[in-house]
UniProtKB/TrEMBL annotation:
Cofactor field: Mg(2+)
Tagged with keyword Transcription regulation: no
Originating organism: Microbacterium aurum
A biological process from GO: carboxylic acid metabolic process
Keyword Coiled coil: no
CDD domains noted in UniProt: ICL_PEPM
Catalytic residues as annotated in Swiss-Prot or TrEMBL: 222 (proton acceptor)
SUPFAM superfamilies membership: Phosphoenolpyruvate/pyruvate domain (SSF51621)
Name of this protein: Isocitrase
Length: 531
């Protein structure tokens, strides 16, 4: 017996207990409403999606070709339409997630207006967006099931038992739009207690995976900007522990923590780490500092010194009161960060790089896997990279290494449109196309995401429409560029009233008021023009 049938029977029995007072209650209508509201709380969603991610991680460990993907979204509607598109074109949401980008929260969701990615936005905006995303995904379920229920009623009315059986099987085996969200908590928005409190709100909203970075919270910078400042490992591990405690308190025992290191591009630290004995984590962190050896007579008032192997070393302190690391230590610091995070409670890694280069990422992962054989990455396929230029340069370098003639190309000018139809450009595009597959096979990338793609697509599509509508095309710009494409490509938003829930509301009105219901979807509804 399916859940749908079980609900009908249980409500019918309950109705019988209440006698005539419940005469207006239809058990199948209740079963339909329950099916349309499968997830009643954010914690139910967090547990359901955590189970999905853990299963996917285990499958990736067994076969690196089954990596996962997501696109960053900044509004519930955008997330909803992404999942609707995935189900329409790819038939399943399997291995496809959502990413919640702190960058886009700052740029698009703050009451202060557009802000840089520096943890200046309201931290409550993060759990609010998680809740909004899942509200829209659940509404997508409700809408799609409502269409199936309408078809089921029509098939019953027509006496088509084959159609009834087929539609009922679609209802019974319905795949939800609810998928895991990897949610960005930045550097934790304060001390570990602040991190714990925010993590709880995010989990209660439905987040099963929280990504946290090792930057100083009050100096946080976008991963692709200069001026990044990291914290000693003990500070970062306290925040990882804070997130784990939040998961455990709320009963999501298999919640996922993604530990991000910005050390590759971060040349500064705010603190000298506490070291208790040679070779401990604090000592290893301090070993990367840019220092100068001094004698006791060289000390000045206010100097900070560290002692190593009998020598006095003075870390170079900047006017900002920050300390700098030695140049060329970024990769080694990343490797240490990653090993340390995995050994102290993190589940997945995020290495923020300055370019998309499989060999570079793999070089670090190989070192990490000497200590943690199943280490896996979440990797940012960032719009901050110039993908065309990077991969054309990689293709150029590969051709040089093969001894090919590259005299027709200027490596410094490979973005030039004149190269678009060349063999080098085709080779580069193929490398871009296979980057995710290659990165997962060679560099341990379990999850590929694009942080802020829908920021760019919203701007691009709006530019296309505005250019034509306010120009010579007028209304044709909308009809040809938007509505005609929606109709012919089966984009559900062409029936925007239905997408916004009008038909669901009509059916509810009928449940509640029967024949007396005043419904919006009659013959005069202009949505009927779209079939």
């Amino acid at each position: 017996m399916t859940a749908y049938e079980t609900d009908i029977r249980s409500i019918a029995a309950l109705k019988q207990q209440h006698g005539s007072a419940w005469d207006a209650i239809d058990p199948e209508s209740v079963a339909r409403m329950r099916a349309q509201n499968r997830f009643r709380t954010g914690l139910e969603i967090a547990q359901y999606t955590a189970d999905i991610m853990r299963r996917d991680m285990a499958e990736y460990d067994a076969d690196s070709s089954v990596y996962t993907q997501s696109l960053g979204v900044w509004h519930g509607f955008i997330g909803q339409q992404k999942l609707i598109s995935i189900k329409k074109h790819l038939k399943s949401t399997n291995k496809r997630y959502l990413y919640l980008s702190g960058w886009m929260v700052a740029a698009l969701r703050s009451e202060f207006g557009p802000l840089p990615d520096q943890s200046m936005h309201e931290k409550t905006a993060v759990p609010a967006l998680i809740e909004e995303l899942y509200t829209f995904l659940r509404q997508a379920d409700a809408r799609e099931l409502d269409l199936l229920f309408t078809k089921l009623d029509a098939a019953r009315l027509a006496g088509d038992e084959t159609a009834v059986e087929f539609i009922q099987s679609q209802i019974d085996n319905y795949e939800t739009h609810v998928v895991p969200i990897i949610a960005d908590i930045d550097a934790g928005f304060g001390n570990p207690e602040a991190t714990y409190l925010l993590a709880k709100k995010m989990i209660e909203a439905g987040a099963c995976a929280i990504q946290i970075e090792n930057q100083v919270s009050d100096e946080k910078q976008c991963g692709h900007q200069d001026g990044k400042v990291t914290v000693p490992h003990e500070d970062f591990l306290a925040k990882i522990n804070a997130v784990r405690y939040a998961f455990l308190e709320l009963g999501i025992d298999n919640g996922i923590i993604v530990a991000r290191t910005d050390s590759l591009g971060a040349g500064l630290t705010q603190k000298i780490a506490v070291s208790h004995e040679p070779g401990d984590l604090g000592d290893q962190y301090n070993a990367f500092l840019d220092v100068e050896e001094i004698g006791e007579g060289d000390l000045s008032d206010g100097d900070v010194v560290i002692r190593r192997e009998g020598r006095l070393l003075r870390p170079k302190r900047l006017a900002s009161n920050l300390y700098q690391f030695r140049r060329g230590t970024g990769e080694a610091r990343c490797v240490l960060d990653c090993i340390t995070s995995l050994q102290h409670g993190a589940d997945l890694l995020w290495i923020e790089t300055e370019k998309p280069h499989v060999a570079q990422i793999a070089g670090m992962v190989d070192q990490i896997r000497k200590e943690i054989p199943n280490a896996k990455l979440v990797y940012n396929n960032s719009p901050s990279f110039n993908w065309t230029l990077n991969f054309r340069q990689q293709a150029y370098d590969a051709l040089v290494e093969e001894g090919a003639d590259v005299s027709a190309y200027d490596r410094a000018d490979l973005m030039n449109v004149a190269y678009d139809d060349t063999e080098l450009a085709r080779l580069a595009d193929e490398k871009i196309r296979s980057f995710q597959k290659d990165g997962s096979a060679r560099a341990g990338i379990f999850h590929h995401l694009i942080t802020l793609p829908t920021y760019h697509t919203a701007a691009l599509s709006t530019d296309d429409l505005a250019k034509g509508y306010f120009g010579d095309e007028g209304m044709l710009a909308y009809v040809k560029g938007v509505q005609r494409r929606e109709i012919r490509e089966g984009i559900a938003t062409v029936k925007h009233q239905n997408m916004a829930g009008s038909d669901i509301g009509d059916n509810h009105k009928e449940y509640f008021a029967g024949d007396a219901a005043l419904k919006a979807g009659g013959k005069d509804n202009t949505m009927n023009q779209f079939g």
